[in-house]
Amino acid sequence: MLFLEFAGLFFLLPSLIAYAGPRLPGLPVLWVVSALCLVLLRRDSQFDRRQLWRSGPFPKGWTGILIPFCASAAVLLLAVRHWAPELLFDLPKRNPVLWALILCLYPVFSVYPQGLMYRVFFTHRYARMFGSPTLLVLASGVAFAYMHIIFRNAWAMGLSFPAGLLFIARYRETRSLLVSSVEHALYGCMIFTIGLGAFFYQGPMPKF
Fold this sequence. Notes:
Elements lengths: L1 H18 L6 H18 L14 H26 L6 H5 L1 H35 L2 H15 L6 H21 L2 H18 L14
């Protein structure tokens, strides 16, 4: 039963959002499902609720977060500049107000619910099912990447797989949803800034 729950929640549901008509908006579904995950976690006496915030790991974690982030940002920026220069900084130049709103709202309304579902709930609920920590991390990365099928393009899923591995590894290292969410928000805001944000919304995909 647990495996069927896992498959339905992390693979069947995104597939339905992506391809079952009429298309469902991803964010409201994410909010509802993450709220249900939160209820289940809070009802579980074995769950350590401090993991939902826990800012303590931050002072030790900044170097480990910023070094891979800066390297990734540099690589992606150069890739966009080389292969699709028309996309480079497209959103900040074309619609700075929308860009600023995304930077402010995205961490709260998208990143934190995703982290709650794909890291906290995922780890607590399915750790025993996978047995091996390596398999758990890999499964979380695959599930996180597959969730981006709702955008119906390979770029969103491909970029999300290594990111998903990084975010779940960070959460397991710190046991802090806050820390892993801040890291997730950094990458997401960078994506929307340098010109790849068009691949991460439910609309027409740009050519790349």
